[in-house]
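OP here, attaching both records as promised.
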Amino acid sequence: QVQLAESGGGLAQAGGPLRVSCAASGSIFRINAMGWYRQAPGKQRELVASISSGDSTNYADSVKGRFTISRDNAKNAVYLQMNSLTPEDTAVYYCTANVQHSLLRKSDYWGQGTQVTVSS
C-alpha cells in the first residue's frame, strides 16, 4: 500500500508564510500528478494546486500569486508554500497523488489532512 503523510500545518498569523509538506511511502514505481486540496467548515473541498510529473502547475484563482506548489521526486514529496495568508485560507489541507505501481497499475491516494489555521 501507499501512504501520504502531511506535515507542517498549524497556527499562522495573517500575512505570514507557512509551508505544508506531503511525503509518500510504500510501493511506488512512479508518482504522476500530485496536488493539494483544502476544505474549510461549511465549504466544499476545492483543488488548491496541482503539479504534473513534468512540473506543470495549476492554481485556484484564490491562491494565484500567493501559493507555490513544488515536488521533490527523489523524496516522493510535494510541498505547498503559502504566503500572504488570510483567515480565508483556514482549512484542512489534503495532499493527493496518482501513484504508478507498475505499467498496468495506478491508483489515487489521499493523505489524512493537516489543519491550517490563520488568525486575523
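Record two, same layout:
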Amino acid sequence: QVQLVESGGGLVQAGGSLRLSCAASGIFFSMNAMGWYRQAPGKQRELVAAITSGGSTNYADSVKGRFTISRDNAMNTVYLQMNSLKPEDTAVYLCNSGTYYSGRYYPANWGQGTQVTVSS
C-alpha cells in the first residue's frame, strides 16, 4: 500500500511563507524521485518542483528563487518551502512519487492534496 499524506497548507498573505510536508509510506522512499504539483481552478496541473533520489532539484520557472524542495530520507518525508508567496501561487498542492530520467519527471503515486491560498 502506497500512501502520501500532505500537510501544512493554509491561508497566508502575499509576501509570506509556508512550508508543506509530505509523509510517505509503502515505498522505498530513498530510491524514488519526489515531486510537488499544483492545480488551480481553470488551469492545467503544473509540476512545481522535483527532487531525485540523489538530491538534485528542478523547478518551474514561475517559482525559481522562491520555492525550495528538500527531502529527509530518515523520516520518509519531502518538503516544499515557499517564500515570497504571490496570489497566483494559490492552488491545491499535491505530493507525488515517481521517476526522473532524460531530464524529465514522471509521476506515479499521488497524495490527496493540500490547499494553499495567498491573499492580496
